Each structure stands twice: as structure tokens, then as C-alpha cells.
Amino acid sequence: MVKIKRDEFMRLVTYMRDNYGINLEQKLTLVEGRLWSVMEKKGFKTLDEYISYIQNDRTGEELDTLLTRLTTNYSYFNREDNHYKFLVGTVLPELTARLKEKDLRIWSAGCSTGEEAYTTAMYLDDYFGYHKKEWDTRILATDISPNVLKLAGEAEYPEDRLKYLSPLWKQKYFTRAHGDIFRVNDNIRKEVIFRSFNLMETVLPFRKKFHVIFCRNVMIYFTKDTRDALVERYYDALDPGGYLFIGLSETVNKTDTRFTFIQPSIYRKGPK
Ligand SMILES: C[S@@+](CC[C@H](N)C(=O)[O-])C[C@H]1O[C@@H](n2cnc3c(N)ncnc32)[C@H](O)[C@@H]1O
Q1: Which atom number of ligand 1 is nearest to the Cα of residue 145?
Q2: Residues 69-92: pLDDT tens digits?
Q3: Is the pTM of this model over 0.90?
């Protein structure tokens, strides 16, 4: 196993923090564990050599590998389902009453392999039922890692990732592809648009404001300053009355934010 020198490690820490907001400062062992096999396989003796290679690799392929190795992509369907209950019980009734154009815009930021966005699409399908076709409810789902986006687009998952869905939804929204692999049905797949986007970009390239943003279990890896700044960008990207959902183990700096705290991990642009 490669041993990484402190100064080389700090070069990687700075690179990941400045470009992707990801804070690896306390994660030396994790980095060694996740990078050694790829460095060894490709013949890099030091981390310095590897970082220089990545920075000069015009194809961007090695950067994809690095991001895949150093980000945590763990996700599953119906994760933190109290958020979906709040979406269905409070947010959707509120929005459907006031959105006259029937254009509901949701962003899954840091979507990983797509479970969050597809789960949201299932809740929307279930909520709108027969009236679904009157609405444009397509969901934008973004991530920095091309590898997870590719998997998200393929929409095939081991059965284990579906274990928090009811048997009825499993049957209604999936088809068994082979073995224990389930594929999300096309009516749900077509509701999600996957794009590559780095949340460190200070200008958000979206023409219209969102009504709901999910950014769950993403900011946990960011430094406090990055997190605070991103939350304020989300505020600007939301329509008045819009909602931000973050991971249950994450927090927003309540004293500095313009958001109104609704309940742990749920915030609103505007009064309660
Ligand atoms: C643990 S997953 C969260 C997936 C999903 N939101 C959930 O809660 O299940 C975190 C995702 O954030 C993505 N991510 C990390 N830093 C990012 C950045 N700077 N820009 C965009 N996505 C980022 C990672 O690639 C990873 O797929």
C-alpha cells in the first residue's frame, strides 16, 4: 500500500477543496485506502506524480476516476422519507394551488446514481395521478462525477437499494432486468434530466428559479465556508416560497442565512 507524504497529501487537499469544495483534511487514511490500488495499477510511485498526471490529462478520464474514488456516492430509494412526506403533505398542495402555469421545477443537486431524483418522480406521479399529464414536473438532477451520472441514466439498481420502497411501488415503478437488478420504468425515467454540474460554480446557469431543491448528504463533505456560500446560492436559485431540503445530519447556519427554518433539514425562502 502507498504511504502518502504529508506535503503531497496537502496538495491534494487543496486541489479538492478549491475545485470541488470537498474537505479531505482529516481523511489521510481514507485517501490512502481509496487511491492506492489505482495508483499502483497505473504505476504512479507518489501522489505528486499522480496529481500532476491528472492536471495534465486532457481527456479528463483520470480526473473522473479521482472524483469517483474520493467522493461518497452512497444512495438509495426513499432515503430520509420524512422529506417526501413533507413534500406530499405540505409543499405540493401549496405549490399546486399557486402555480398557475403548471410548471413545477425541482433540482436534485448532488444526485449521485439517481435514486433521489427517481424517488421524487415516483412521489410526483403518485401525487398527481390522473392529472400528471397536465403538469410539467421534470426534475433536474446534477452531480460532478460522470461515472455516477452514467449509472443514473442507465437506471438499473440492485434490489437492495429498493428495500425502503413499498412492494406496491417496486412493482409499479420497476421492471426486473436480470438477477437481482431492477430497472426504473420509462415513465419515471423520462421525468429526470441528468447533467454534470459542479456545485462550486458561483454562477448557477439556470434560467428559471426552482420551487424545490434537494441537496442531501452532499454538503457534509464541504468546508463550512463553502457550505454557507452554497446555501445562499440556493436561496437565490429558489422562487419565493420555495423549499430547500438538506440531509438529516446536516445543518444550515441559522444566524447568517436568509432562509426560514421550517423543521430540521427543511428550509423555506420566505415566511413559515
Ligand atoms: C452521498 S451522495 C448523495 C446522494 C443523494 N443526494 C442522497 O442523499 O442519497 C453525494 C454526492 O455529491 C456529489 N458531489 C460532491 N461534491 C460535489 C460538487 N462539488 N458538485 C456536485 N456534486 C458533488 C458526489 O459526487 C456524490 O455523488
Answers
A1: 25
A2: 999 899 999 999 999 999 999 999
A3: yes
